[in-house]
Write a structure and sequence with these properties.
- The structure is a homodimer.
- By secondary structure, chain A is of the alpha/beta class.
- In chain A, helix 1 packs across helix 3, helix 2 packs across helix 3 and helix 5 packs across helix 12.
- The longest helix of chain A has 17 residues.
- The mean pLDDT of chain A is 91.
- Chain A binds a DNA duplex through helix 2 and helix 4.
- Chains A, B: InterPro entries: HTH_LacI, LacI/GalR-like_sensor, Lambda_DNA-bd_dom_sf, Peripla_BP_I.
- Chains A, B: This is LacI family transcriptional regulator.
- Chains A, B: It holds the Pfam family LacI.
DNA sequence: CTGAAAGCGCTTACAG
DNA sequence: CTGAAAGCGCTTACAG
């Protein structure tokens, strides 16, 4: 690595090429009205000095930056999937991506992290932002797309078709013959949690079953929060023969609790998760779940954001991506 | 989402609070010498307007930004691990992280992507950068740490102890009784590829075995590039009883090729990878490999970068993280 | 304790 | 075809 004295600026290039900084800028941006001779000189100087225009200065000056921002609460394996999807959508568009992570709020549950990070970026750096699983509504002068929005949110968003996915999950259990099916929900302020519970209720209702409130527990999507409700559900005399859980992380904990209580899965208890995180396939037994493609969520979010920035977005601005049932080893017909 | 007219700037806050923009700046940055009454007023105005200072403007003006950059070629599951490690190291330091991904070079193998992205960031946005697996030496006015540097690179870097890891891998095969052990290497310009091959050679030499050049194939770390050398190795009359591969991605392809040729793993052929990517555990058979903690690589890179920025870094600037042998189902004593 | 002014590196009307 | 100047949103000496 060579330490250069200072940043190479337009000024350095201008001096070296014997022109004004305005001309350098024109060449860099490929504007018309520069003699080919001058273009040559400037290009040579740029090459020689290794000049690259400052993202910051350009952003500050221009209204348009051709950079999208993405704000995330933490980095998980699914975040990488989202990012891959985003980059796939951006590929060939000339749009770059900046992911911003704030170390103070990282991994904590502090209120307002989305808004803070968003405001810092959207000040001038980005043309628009994607925010992954915001916990609140968010405001910005540039377009924002939420992946997994807050419940009742009116902001543009992309989410899995959680309702249909949950119905599919419960129908899978019903088809296997289960009738007492428990549910452990997620953070109720999020649309995903709400829709997954609605799907559970709807599937039971469709099957002519009444929903037993004692069969419904509540976590907040963090795996540990599933432990207490799982215990309550499984310690009962009339315990369910199956549990549908609003996330794989929580479902994995249900598996643990079942193990602690000496219950065999799927012999004594069937478990279905939601998300299809990589760990699900590794679980003992491998978890039956609903796959939501984080890759596709990222892809669609980037597409929607492009439309929004271009002003060409059409209703609906709340978009859904299909889910898919993945049957593995944690589900079977009920009991003995 | 509420669309705000324009960005809320210092000017807006100043007007609302009835002070100058200089005073607003002082309050925002907690500088001394502002009367508590003024501080109150300014704070109230900030609160009311939802002001957040522009990252871009601040970066441009200041020498120090308290933001680290990370430049990556693509987003993979291991990238998320690296990012988690980085954020863990940054947690509580007040340092934020910006990840920059360029859509033009994303996923392609275009030359110079590291340098371009790095230069755009380090112009003024970041105090220093981490670059993940650069393919060339890189220069910058601010400190740079490479995760998995180029071979013979003198830049500050963090890498797994690839040499020791490779020795461990080969010793594992030797202990099982293998004597004809093949090797498929990676992109030879990278230090990791070189060290893994050196380890292979060293372990064989230590065991008193001469290295057979026909047993060495070469890929470039991209999984598909392992197919041809694997075929060559396994089609031979005197084929090896085991293959050590410089990456899991390539090892997984070796498994496929073996399957195509009707060879049983580990019955007819043992395979050892390197990296321990999540997919390795899922392979059939599950892959024996050398674990390099990407999380720890990210963590150490962020620590080293902090030292570099603070000017307190001590030699050596090339740091190594230990590896660990993970024995799974793809290795066994040789044949029949 | 506070403000006016310079300047970070750019781009873009405005002149010529 | 080219340059001088204004200004993007900030921070920081410099005055007062």
């Amino acid at each position: 690595m060579t330490e250069v004295r200072g940043p190479v600026t337009v000024r350095d290039v201008a001096r070296s090429a014997g022109v004004s900084i305005a001309t350098v800028s024109r060449v860099v941006n490929g504007h018309y009205g520069v003699s080919s001779r001058t273009v040559e000189q400037v290009r040579a100087a740029i090459e020689e000095l290794g000049y690259e225009s400052s993202l910051v200065a350009t952003s500050l000056r221009r209204n348009r930056t051709n950079v999208f921002g993405l704000v995330t609460h933490s980095f998980e394996s699914y975040t990488a999937e989202v990012l891959k999807g985003v980059m796939e959508a951006l590929s060939g568009t000339g749009l770059d991506l900046i992911v911003y992570a704030n170390s103070d709020t990282y991994g904590t549950r502090s209120h307002g992290w989305e808004q803070r990070n968003l405001t810092r970026l959207s000040g001038t750096l980005t043309d628009g932002c994607i925010v992954v699983t915001p916990w609140t509504e968010v405001k910005s002068r540039t377009p924002v797309v939420a992946i997994d929005p807050v419940r009742d949110s009116t902001m543009p968003s992309v989410a899995a078709d959680n309702l249909a996915g949950a119905v599919t999950a419960v129908n899978h259990l019903l088809t296997l013959g289960h009738r007492r099916i428990g549910f452990i929900g997620g953070r109720s302020s999020l649309a995903a949690a709400w829709a997954r519970e609605e799907g559970y209720r709807a599937a039971l209702a469709d099957a002519g079953l009444t929903v037993d409130p004692t069969l419904i527990g509540r976590g907040d999507f963090h795996p540990e929060t599933a432990i207490a409700p799982a215990r309550t559900l499984l310690d009962s005399d009339d315990r369910p023969t199956a549990i549908f859980t609003a996330s794989d992380g929580m479902a994995l904990k249900v598996l643990e609790v079942a193990g602690d209580l000496g219950l065999d899965v799927p012999g004594d208890l069937s478990v279905v998760g939601f998300d299809n995180i990589p760990e699900s396939a590794l679980a003992q037994p491998a978890l039956t779940t609903i796959d939501q493609s984080m890759h596709q969520l990222g892809y669609e979010a980037a597409r929607l954001l492009q439309e929004l920035v271009a002003g060409s977005a059409e209703q609906p601005l709340q978009r859904f991506v299909p889910t898919e049932l993945v049957v593995r080893d944690s589900t079977a017909p009920p009991g003995r």
